[in-house]
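Example S7 (structure tokens).
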């Protein structure tokens, strides 16, 4: 049950114009309730959980031109939301300061460049992302709720509860598609599991209709290798249950060929799980090589297999990296730090002279 806020009392609006769950949606769902403790912020979107402070989409059109502080902040994270902010400001006369967060690491289209030039402020989620923006941006990396994502008190018991193999367990979570490198993970794990009969693997996530053939091929490959019982496709689980699946792992793999930012390594490390990841997205800025995991080239199944096997075959190193991974996130990537940095920008924009 959603209890909508009166937009007249809202200083900051975080639009979410996408229905399907995405990384951007997850970011808004995590941040807005936390930020609402410090500033009058609300999300606006077609499908958001009831605990997220929000206003109705229609209220964007009918809300008063001015907010309680005069100008409001419109925090967009997609092109459609930048367009929406411009339309509200210049067509409907709403008093808005426009902020855009960019996570993309590729050259922008002409339209995106045009939109970015019209924003009042820009945030980049990594140093790499900032390099693709043709204007100054403040780098604010994503953070993790370390109260939700934390090591399991009894990993063995949790594995049993989830019906997972009892031995060393390696996980790969996210959409099943070539861009995410799921096939590279499968190839690497077939090699790893061939000579380690006590180990297992889990793929958590789903394939959209376009990629279901790709998933079937991977399932067939696992079955042909005789590993269907040890390398399992477990589908998609509700967002509120995902932490328990990380907690059951001994090692996490982020095999992406391309990524904008990529939260999964932080979620895993917060749960005390070291990470083997490719050098894409922000992964090089998140993982301390040799301390909280290892970095490899994208698409390198052999290198991935060596990195996974090296940690599974050295339980002492795996335990050291597990403890270091949790400390690393607590010290550098708490969600409270991300929320505070963004809220400081909101206040600057609210206080800026026209």
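Recovered sequence:
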């Amino acid at each position: 049950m959603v209890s909508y806020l009166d937009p007249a009392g809202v200083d900051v609006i975080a639009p979410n114009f996408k229905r399907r769950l995405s990384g951007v949606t997850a970011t808004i769902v995590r941040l807005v309730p936390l930020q609402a403790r410090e500033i009058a912020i609300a999300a606006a979107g077609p499908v958001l959980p009831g605990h997220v402070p929000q206003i109705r989409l229609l209220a964007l059109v009918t809300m008063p031109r001015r907010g309680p502080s005069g100008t409001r902040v419109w925090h967009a994270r997609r092109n459609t939301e930048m367009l929406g902010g411009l339309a509200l400001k210049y067509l409907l006369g709403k008093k808005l300061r426009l902020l855009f967060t960019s996570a993309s690491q590729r050259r922008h289209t002409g339209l995106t460049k045009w939109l970015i030039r019209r924003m009042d402020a820009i945030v980049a989620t990594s140093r790499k992302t900032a390099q693709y923006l043709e204007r100054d941006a403040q780098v604010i990396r994503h953070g993790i709720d370390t109260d939700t994502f934390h090591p399991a008190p009894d990993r063995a018991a949790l594995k049993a509860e989830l019906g997972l193999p009892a031995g060393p367990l390696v996980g790969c979570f996210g959409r099943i598609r070539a861009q995410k490198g799921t096939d590279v993970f499968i190839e690497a794990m077939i090699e790893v599991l061939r000579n380690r009969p006590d180990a297992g693997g889990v793929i958590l996530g789903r394939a959209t209709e376009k990629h279901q053939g790709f998933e079937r091929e991977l399932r067939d490959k696992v079955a042909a290798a005789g590993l269907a019982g040890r390398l399992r496709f477990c589908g998609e689980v509700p967002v509120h249950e995902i932490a328990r699946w990380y907690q059951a792992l001994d090692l996490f793999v982020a095999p992406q060929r391309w990524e904008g930012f990529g939260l999964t390594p932080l979620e895993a490390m917060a749960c005390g799980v070291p990470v083997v990841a490719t050098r894409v997205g922000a992964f090089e800025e998140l993982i301390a090589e040799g301390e909280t995991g290892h970095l490899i080239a994208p698409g390198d199944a052999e290198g991935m297999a060596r990195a996974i096997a090296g940690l599974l075959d050295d339980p002492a190193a795996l335990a050291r990296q597990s403890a270091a991974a949790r400390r690393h996130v607590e010290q550098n990537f708490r969600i409270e730090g991300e929320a505070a940095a963004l809220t400081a920008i909101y206040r600057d924009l609210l206080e800026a002279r026209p």
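Notes on this example. Residues 119 and 246 are 37 Å apart (CA to CA).
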